[in-house]
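During the reporting period the student researcher (J.K.) took over the structure-prediction task from the postdoctoral fellow and processed the backlog of single-chain submissions. One of the processed entries is reproduced below for the supervisory committee.
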Amino acid sequence: MHAASREAYERLSHTLDTGLGETSDAVNTGAQTGTELLDVVDVLDSDRSLRMALVDAAAEPEQRAGLAKRLFSGKVSAATEEIVSAAVSQTWSNTRDLREGLEKLGRRALLRSAEGQGQLDRVEDELFRLARILENEPELEMLLADKSRTANDRRDLLAKVIYGKVTAVTEALALQAIGRLQDSPVEVLDGLCDDVAALEGREVARVRSAAELTDEQESALAAKLEKIYGRKIAVHSEVDTSLLGGAVIRVGDEIIDGSTAGKLERLRRSIA
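J.K. obtained the following C-alpha cells:
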C-alpha cells in the first residue's frame, strides 16, 4: 500500500475495532461484517468501472459514499454498509489499495469474531497446519493455484478438503484467500497465519524438528527467541525426520539451522 492508503486503512481499522467493541454481540457482528466485506471485495474485483468510481478523486467523498450506499444498501448489514461508506470516503492511491484495504478489514473483522470466542490461537494453528498440508501435497497446491480455474472452483476444491475440520473463521479466511490468490497457496496461508499472530502483537516462528517438540520445549524455545528478537514469538512446529536431529527455525526471512543434516552439509562444503 502507498502512504495515503496506509493512513486510510489505519483509520478504518480503528473505526472497525471501536464499532465491534461497542456492540453487544461482537462475535456475530464481526463474523457477519467480515464475511460481507470479503463479498464486497469480490464485487469490486468483477467491476473495473465501479472500482474507478469509488476512488475517483474528482468526486466529493460524499458522492462516493452515496454511490456505495445505493449499491449495497439492503444487501449487507448496517455495520458493513457503514464501513464501506467510510472506506470510499477516504483517499486511496489506486483501486488495488482500496480492494486490499477492504480485504484486510474483512479479515480483521473475522479475527475479532474469533477473538471474542477465544479461538484466535486455534485459528492461527489451523492456518499453519493447512499450509503444511498443501506444502506436502504439491498436486493439490497446484490445482488450487491454477488460475485457469474459476475462483469458485478453487474454493469448492479447498472446501471439500477442510469442511468440518476447522473453525468457521479459518474456513472463511482460507476460502476467500484461495479465491483471489496473490501468491502461492502456501504463501497466502502462511501470510494469514502471520496476520493472526500480529493481531496479538506476536511474530511467527516456523520450526521443523527431527522429533516432535513437547509443550515445554516449545515454550522454552519461544522464550529464547523472544530474547533474541525482542518481541513476542508464536512457535508453530512440524516434524521433519530428514533433519536427522535438531531443528530448523524460520522467523520472517531469517533461518536458524541447528539440524544435524544442516551441520553435515556445512561440513561437507568445508572439506569439498
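The committee noted the following: The two ends are 46 Å apart (CA to CA).
J.K. will present the remaining backlog at the next meeting.
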